[in-house]
Amino acid sequence: xxxxxxPKHIGFIMDxxxxxxxxxxxxxxxxxxxxxxxxxxxxxxxxxxGIKYATFxxxxxxxxxxxSKIELAGLIxxxxxxxxxxxERLQKEKARLNxxxxxxxxxxDLQKLLRETTELLxxxxxxxxxxxxxxxxxxxxxxxxxKALKTGEKITEKNFGDFLDTAGQxxxxxxIRTGARNRTSNFLIWQAAYSEIYFSNTLWPDxxxxxxxxxxxxxxxQRRTMGG
Length: 228
Known about the structure:
This protein is an alpha/beta fold. The protein is 43% helix and 16% strand.
């Protein structure tokens, strides 16, 4: 269960799927499939630990622009499969689904599936699962500014969060990046301003409860001054 010294909101930069597959002599799709399956396990672990918000960086704006059409087609297929096959499990875990990013570029049937699933799970509150799709922190900020300007409201640091994809949620307390890469890659730029950041050498498909527990213990030892 969460304690006063536990993070309420954790962001996961799930890196290493393709390298994990390469080591095993498999193609990228095999790695992405294993990574997708691990998301379900970590959602369950986070819920058990009393984590209220978990954000998974699935597909960045840069991925969408730069990855091959074959790889993106595979990712879209995996997304459809994951959402269709895991809806009941998410419902059982009392998980709410929230989508971050611009999904208007996706096939219409995937957009419809995402909307239907978020509607199905909207009343759940045990854990809020944010899935970042075609997401970039800079893009989110630009879209938030556009939303704010339409309202005619004066934009302030206090109200700006109301226009972000994570509106109504607390800022991230902890960002975990797997895959031995020490960068945040345009993820939750606004929300992670005072997040603790942990870079794990573990490739995402191998990220398990043991590694998760180790990081949470590390987090408890951090002195969070929030700029003070």
